[in-house]
Design a protein that fits this description.
Length: 197
């Protein structure tokens, strides 16, 4: 599959997830605490490079891919938190993400999707803040269990994502190395094609 098709395929999964998450949120009223970006400031966010392929492609299209990669490898090389997280941005947009539109799958599933446990029940992948804000959704009552079943199941998005590119999705990396790998992939792809021409 050529690069642009891979990017399109990833974005298609993201759009589907956005619709499914929206439906779940409308049905339950589940929403983040206003101005909260706590989950983006965690130091242990893991993602696959493929999740950030649309981000890397967008950086390439806007002529910023090399500069971003350089920054990640130098100034941000010791950074444990996501390099796209900004406290300043937190006041302006969702989650404090500098490139919210191109965030990874992990950023999209957290808080609003579920995993299926061995006993078949759905467990929401959520933070303490959401649990405290929406106790009725997490109180294990029949009503709450019914609502949780409406949550998009994360694996239903991870599996089709992995089928787009095995190599770029086989390994979960800390978020910044995952972004670097995605940028490297896009830059190498176009460098090779330019040389060929
Ligand atoms: S998922 Fe939780 S930690 Fe993350 S922004 Fe929403 S409320 Fe905050
Ligand atoms: S890419 Fe954006 S949404 Fe995802 S962890 Fe980083 S700052 Fe948060």
């Amino acid at each position: 599959m050529i690069l642009t098709n891979k990017v399109r395929a990833v974005l298609k999964i993201y759009r589907k997830l956005e619709i499914d998450t929206g439906l779940f949120q409308s049905a339950t009223g589940l929403s983040c605490k206003s101005g909260c970006g706590t989950c983006c400031s965690y130091p242990d966010i893991y993602a696959t490079p493929l999740e950030f392929l649309p981000y890397a492609f967008h950086q390439y299209q806007t002529g910023k891919a090399e500069e971003k990669m350089e920054l990640l490898k130098t100034e941000f090389s010791e950074l444990k938190t996501c390099s796209l997280f900004s406290h300043r941005q937190l006041a302006l947009g969702p989650g404090g993400c500098l490139d919210y539109e191109f965030r990874g799958l992990v950023c999209r599933v957290f808080g609003f999707s579920s995993m299926i446990l061995k006993d078949g029940s759905h467990s929401l992948i959520a933070c303490k803040i959401l649990k405290e804000k929406h106790p009725a959704i997490f109180d294990h009552s029949e009503n709450s269990l019914e609502k949780l079943q409406m949550a998009p199941v994360a694996a239903n998005y991870y599996l089709p994502l992995a089928s787009i590119d095995y190599e770029l999705s086989e390994k979960q990396l800390p978020v910044n190395p995952a972004i670097i790998k995605a940028l490297e992939y896009v830059l190498a792809y176009y460098c090779y094609r330019k040389k060929k021409r």
